[in-house]
């Protein structure tokens, strides 16, 4: 049985699946869809998001993307948009049948990042 967060998320394959579901949810979410429709290279963003989640969950991958402040600087992301993104991530974790403890751990990590993303 998995013990680290990385293992409980299904390692890189599980996390890549989760990121696909999260981006699909963002593209269907009226609060944030335009933000994601406007991304020029969505495959690259998905790859970076997968690396970020893997590394943040304790996986062996190195994260090669921008830090959260640099990635979101100048976008003027609102609190409402941030919550919408968190809701999409929680929804995708439910769809992938992750347990409550795992979901809560991810929510805690995401919440801790908000100061680097909202209105920066
Ligand atoms: C919940 C916490 C969030 C995390 C962990 C996160 C993570 C990331 C990561 C890893 C990237 C890729 C950085 C790179 O390309 O080097 C990224 C890009 C991006 N994020 Fe976020 N993000 C979060 C919240 C948000 C929110 C709330 C929005 C807006 C509604 C947003 C919009 C974007 C956009 C539009 C890009 C692509 C920028 C571009 O390359 O064109 N993110 N994010």
Automatic annotation (TrEMBL):
Tell me which cofactor or cofactors this protein depends on.
heme
PROSITE patterns xref list: GLOBIN_FAM_2
| A UniProt-annotated Pfam family | Bac_globin
Sorted alphabetically, which InterPro entries does this protein's record hold? Globin-like_sf (IPR009050), Globin/Proto (IPR012292), Globin_bac-like_CS (IPR019795), Hemoglobin_trunc (IPR001486)
Residue ranges annotated as coiled coil are none
What is the name of this protein?
Group 1 truncated hemoglobin
Q: Which SUPFAM superfamilies match?
A: Globin-like (SSF46458)
Q: Does the keyword Cytoplasm apply?
A: no
Membrane-crossing ranges are: none
Which keywords appear in this protein's UniProt record, sorted alphabetically?
Heme, Iron, Metal-binding, Transport
Q: Which domain of life is it from?
A: Bacteria
């Amino acid at each position: 049985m998995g013990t680290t967060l990385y293992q409980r998320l299904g390692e890189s394959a599980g996390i890549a699946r989760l990121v696909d579901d999260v981006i699909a949810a963002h593209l269907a979410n009226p609060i944030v869809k335009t933000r994601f429709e406007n991304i020029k290279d969505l495959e690259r963003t998905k790859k970076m998001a997968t690396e970020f989640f893997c590394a943040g969950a304790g996986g062996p991958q190195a994260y090669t993307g921008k830090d959260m402040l640099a990635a979101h600087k100048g976008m003027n992301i609102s609190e409402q948009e941030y919550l919408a993104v968190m809701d999409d991530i929680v929804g995708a974790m439910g769809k992938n049948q992750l347990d409550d403890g795992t979901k809560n751990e991810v929510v805690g990590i995401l919440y801790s990042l908000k100061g680097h993303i909202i209105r920066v």
